[in-house]
Amino acid sequence: MSVNYDQILEAIWETIYMTGAAFGFSLLIGFPLGIFLVVTRKGHLLENESVSNVLNIVINIFRSIPFIILMVAIIPLTRLIVGTSIGTAAAIVPLVFYAGPYIARLIENSLLEVDKGVIEAAQAMGASPAQIIFRFLIPEALSSLVLALTIAVVGLIGASAMAGAIGGGGLGDLAITYGYQRFDTFIMVITVAILVLLVQGVQSFGNILSRRVRRS
């Protein structure tokens, strides 16, 4: 049986849904983690070597696990959270565990690009650590943060395609079920083309947004 266009559209929607939901949850985890990675560093606003070391170890552990292995490793947790280990909703759980630490590192790198003089000037004005973070540090790094999060979304699109290997739905599942298992070259080409277009669209939007928020 050949795939029809309704199935292709459904696969596109599932990929967008997985990517969007996973990005939202990952951002809730990764953004504060990235901030804490920066401000608890030696010589920074809330220097705390113990907290910094623990955060770095935990994040490095999750980042060192290939996504395909991570999906299988946390199947019991996925079943506990969503009640099943297959389908689009189930794929979101490992995507969050994969992207959360990755976003934390991206946020960390962007915030570290901010000139220390900005922080010192804010401290001289008597700003509290929270005020420095949200009124100086993040706004100064906003353009870089947008590009970093764009990279995270692109990575999630690729990971969502891999989720098809365990029945996660989306374009990856379509490519494996019809393109690989049934030797349908047309479907394989179509799914690859759609993924390329999605990535190009996200990257272009991120580049434009980054330029618009860049401080002169």
TrEMBL record:
Matching InterPro entries: AA_ABC_Transporter_Permease, MetI-like, MetI-like_sf
Record membrane topology: Multi-pass membrane protein
Subcellular compartments: Cell membrane
Domain ABC transmembrane type-1, first and last residues per copy: 12-207
Transmembrane segment boundaries: 16-39, 51-74, 80-100, 145-166, 186-209
GO annotation terms (biological process): D-methionine transmembrane transport
Keywords: Cell membrane, Membrane, Transmembrane, Transmembrane helix, Transport
GO cellular component: plasma membrane
Record-stated family: Belongs to the binding-protein-dependent transport system permease family. CysTW subfamily.
Protein name: Methionine ABC transporter permease
